[in-house]
Amino acid sequence: MISKSMEELVAGSSVIRALFEEGKQMAAKVGVENVYDYSLGNPSVPAPAAVDEAFRQVLDEEDSLYVHGYMNNAGYEDVREAVADSLNRRFGTTFSGDGILMTVGAAGGLNTALRTLVDPGDEVICFAPFFGEYTNYIKNFGGVPVVVPADTRTFQLNLEGLDDTINERTKALIINNPNNPSGVVYSADTLRQLQAILEKAEKRVGHPIYVISDEPYRELVYDGVTVPFMSLYIKNCIIGYSFSKSLSLPGERIGYLAVPKEVDGYGELMDGLTVAERILGFVNAPSLQQRMIKRCIDEATDVAAYDKNRRFLYESLTEMGFECIRPEGAFYLFMKSPIEDEKVFVAEGKKHNILMVPATSFGCPGYVRLAYCVSYDMIQRSMPAFKALAETYFK
Ligand code: PLP
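== Aminotransferase ==
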């Protein structure tokens, strides 16, 4: 029937499906208001009003055949120019429209980039903790994911030993900044060190090693933290962006890849990305979304609600004795399991109707992820449950 590799994938995705099912069963039993579901990274702040207004304007003002038609596989030229101009204005970069490829969200962009770079057997490095789908995306093209374990002291990129990990088969690294699940923002200093390692390694292996920078949370930062812009630090980078989180549009599937002119093999790379977008079956990013994005390019979600959740959750759980990484970006809190096996801790949490994700699925056992893109009210209501959970471990 279905392929062996897909059988394995279906079996492997059962943890998250099981969590979802358990949440539903719990709600049926104890009432939805008594279930504290921290499992999903679905934005809880509505899209800015300007987004809906832009959709209306596109439908009212633009030619219908044009708006709903095919276009260049890389996207509408004027939309790509608008993305490049916005990046250049905000980050002092020099992108041109032909270095932008509109994509079907970050997931579409990552798959397009990997299809372009990876031959079967090629290696792609991921730094733990990482978004669990990366390994699936790499395997989609016969690539081999190579996991660098987390630096659990700082949760910055673990660069120790990276040079030894890179070999002739290494094609790319995937970096996610700000990070899901840790909430950490990789510093400019970390990126400078990474560039020095890559420059040396590229000479040794004799080909470019591309950093695929996955940045769906770029706009979601707190405490005045800024995310260093990847192309200002890393020469051979492909920047992947998505409006799923920054405009609260995850179901609409819109994002882009941005490639600086300075990368090795720029022309070949852009041609490859454009063909990959087509033959993966995306053909092009959704046209109505592209037209809307042109009108909303500098809009961003109001992060105040996430910030309020973040402060309250971090402070309350830390006070109870839990060890948490202070999140600077995204909308996740990464918490150390009080016992070695975090799956047992997650099961204990369920007894108090708390749903957390075990971080083994992010390549970082011993930790759990709490998505705080939920209502403030739910966080407050969950406090007695967390207190009871804390008492199990810290007497
Ligand atoms: N990358 C990371 C780190 C994510 O957290 C997500 C979604 O949660 C994605 C990529 C996929 O984003 P998109 O909905 O834009 O495909």
